[in-house]
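Sequence only, no structure available. Ideas?
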Amino acid sequence: MQRASDKIVELEQYSLDAQALFIDITDEATAIGFLRKHMHLTFKIKSNTRKFQAMLERCNQAHCHWVDSDHRHVFSHLAVCHEKASAWQAVLTYLNLKGVVMLPITKP
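Reply:
I predicted one. Tokens follow.
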């Protein structure tokens, strides 16, 4: 139970960090540094594609599941947190397609 609770905290922190990074790279003014500039340019190119829109929709659905999830049921909430973290990881990986550099955050 305790390990699952600790993993939930790690996955929730990863999701918050991933969302913050995504917000930074969507705005040209905050896309500072090589990685963020590279991801911003990729975002500008890919932002209107169906695949990217589907990925963002998956993130939105995962967030809605996370909001509706009962935090008292540790294992079901862990699965929801994993779904949300995986969705954000897919978005960030897609924006760093060529693997130019390591992402500043890694999924636990």
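The mean pLDDT is 88.
Hope that gets you unstuck.
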